[in-house]
Amino acid sequence: MRKHLFETKPLSLLLEEMRSGDRLHRVLGRWHLTSLGVGAIIGTGIFVLTGVAAHDKAGPALTLSFAVAGVACIFAALCYAEFASMVPIAGSAYTYAYATLGELFAWIIGWDLILEYTVASSAVAHGWSHYFQDFLSVFGVHLPAILTNAPFDFNSAGHLALTGTWFDFPAIAVTALIASILVIGVKESANFNNAMVAVKVSIVLFVIAVGAFYVKPANWHPFAPFGYTGVSFFGHTLMGQTGPNGEPLGVFAGAAMIFFAYIGFDSISTQAEEAINPQKDMPVGIIASLIICTVLYILVTAVLTGMVPYNHLNIDSPVSDAFRQVGLPWAQLLISLGAIAGITSVLLVMMLSQPRVFLAMARDGLLPPKFFAAIHPRYRTPYKSTILTGIVVASMAALVPLRILAELVNIGTLLAFVIVCAAVPVMRRTNPDADRPFRCPMVPLVPFLGIASCLLLMFSLPAENWWRLIVWLAVGLVIYFTYGRRHSVLARRRAAARG
């Protein structure tokens, strides 16, 4: 039985499945894919996480945190690009792990991706809610306080406390809207995303150009108030300062927190089955979107921490509030509109990706296919799992505070990147003659650097994130051994061969 746990899905079988069966429509071109990447990357990272990461973790040195996270992502992106061009079907890292490391690892990474996209979507919906409320406040409109936030959050002492609210109603509303759009069709969703991306990139450029005139270099001193390190190992800080609860502080701790902002190119790979020319366009979309967004992240962070002292940044809506603090309240309206558009597109791409992971796992028999692999007869979308995703995301966004959501999704994303980087040299060895329209350069050096940098950032997260990940993976293993292992396509093929 043990050897079956690590049985790989042959590349030939993956390619055969790609050409047959009930597949998704190939309607996405190079521009759509790059736009989806930019749509997923630019949004919450700039408009939400810059505030909490600069305020609590890195100070003005958050610019270096974005650079560190960007470098780690570049290594992972090159590995993703090779696989996405080789195996252009839904599933992303789950599919790559199945083809290289075996069924058990595929299940682990698939279950991890479910955590990543679900929690990421919830965090994004939470951020959208606060910017929407900020936008309404410009007109003097305020929602009932009990409907504006999660019922608990961290207080100034770092302990969980009740907020006096019931749930976050705007987060529920936007999640329901996005889920409805995604059910209707992927091309319609992509066109909607293109419009949102155009708006938010314009606003980001506005923030950089106008905000630069209000930068006070004195606000960058001290540049790294929490230090240049911030590395820990299972909750024990190895280098750098520690926070009130023993969590690491510094540049690497900031990079670990804002890594959430970079998961857009990972989302692109889940749309490989819907790309018109995946062999050429997937690598371009993945790498181009990452480079564009890293440059914009660094510039916006430098401007933001130069406009306002890092410890005065608003945690929930830092960009619009920074312009308010420097005496530009009219810009608050414009930035809030851009943030709403930007975060909406992030939410769309995250919620677009989640059902496609479900779809890939269900096609392999690891999840019930009648539900998770069900394709709408008219819209050709995985509508049942999309609706389920919407329900779960809305519930988490309404009830769980942003800090917990942001840190939880990061460790899941980093684990996915580690496994994809490890899979590249394995695939090179097991399938050396396979067609690789895009080849990751300098293998095994680039994959090794990707693994090392992602592990470093994982160790820089607070210890409770490791425990949450372990509990989540334990639940997943129970489901795998009670259902997935017995119903997988490979298991049925083995049974048929014996019979």
CATH fold name, please?
Answer: Amino acid/polyamine transporter I
Q: Give a quick account of the main beta sheet: strands, pairing sense, barrel closure.
A: 2 strands, antiparallel
CA-CA gap between termini: 17 Å
CATH class: Mainly Alpha
Return the string of H and E elements.
HHHHHHHEEHHEEEEHHHHHHHHHHH
Distinct helical segment count: 20
Number of strands: 6
Strand content: under 5%
Approximately how much helix is present in the residues? Answer: 55-70%
Radius of gyration: 22 Å
Q: What is the domain tally?
A: 1
What's the rounded overall pLDDT mean? 83
* CATH-scheme architecture: Up-down Bundle
- What is the SS-derived class? mainly alpha
Low-confidence stretches: none
CATH homologous superfamily caption: Amino acid/polyamine transporter I
- Taking strands numbered 1, 2, ... along the chain, how are they ordered across the largest sheet? 1-2
Shape from CA axes? Answer: globular
Written overview of the protein:
The chain has helices at residues 2-5, 11-18, 30-41, 44-58, 62-86, 93-100, 103-138, 169-184, 186-211, 251-258, 264-270, 278-307, 318-325, 329-363, 369-372, 383-399, 402-430, 445-459, 463-487, 489-498, and strands spanning 152-154, 160-162, 231-233, 236-239, 241-242, 248-249. It is mainly alpha-helical. The chain has one domain (2-16, 27-498): Up-down Bundle (Amino acid/polyamine transporter I), CATH 1.20.1740. The protein has a two-stranded antiparallel ribbon. It has a two-stranded antiparallel sheet with strand order 3-4. A two-stranded antiparallel ribbon has the order 5-6. Strand 1 (152-154) and strand 2 (160-162) form a beta hairpin.
